[in-house]
Amino acid sequence: MAKLGKRTRAARVAFEGKMNVALTEAVALVKANATAKFDETVEIALNLGVDPRHADQMVRGTVNLPNGTGKTVRVAVFARGDKADQAKAAGADIVGAEDLMQEILGGKIDFDRCIATPDMMPIVGRLGKVLGPRNLMPNPKIGTVTPDVAEAVAAAKGGQVQFKVEKAGVIHAGVGKVSFDAAKLEENIRALVDAVAKAKPAGAKGTYMKKVSISSTMGPGVSVDIASATGN
To answer: Hey, what CATH class is 17-68+161-230 in?
Structure first.
């Protein structure tokens, strides 16, 4: 997270020494210290008490942010026939089968979310080494392998966020834009934190949610009081 740059003295004073502040104050601080010339993304980092190297401690899932992400999401769909037509009608940016596979193998990955019908998995399975490291591999556990491609496309376009714990036990995600009203950012943050809380794996021991912090793309991080982020 970036250091404070040329910011007003008031913003600096407001930020200094702040640790584990209530979510409302944390959002205000992040918005006050976002001074880039573009509409910065508000990002959240959750430190979890899990070791994802163990299968029973993996945390992953999706959440539909009530106020969207503010980001245009490009969606690719592996489907044929009627399912392909349904995906296109729902707003998918790219729809294909073997042709799409060849494009991806050739290095063209012009999308942010990949969805597939179940019958396409023999084709999609060949792309694991390419899509897996980019967290783009369709997976039935998060609803991206589904016969209802229209619903999946609509969800992806409408503000659905995928989350997956990283090796260090941290989840990162975007929860909106600095230009969003503070109340909308708070609502999005609580929705994501709640989804991660509900995804607690059976193998998690001790404190599950250890730390929550938010920041803008170019701004400093603010540590958030966990209870205020969950609404408890």
So the answer is: alpha beta
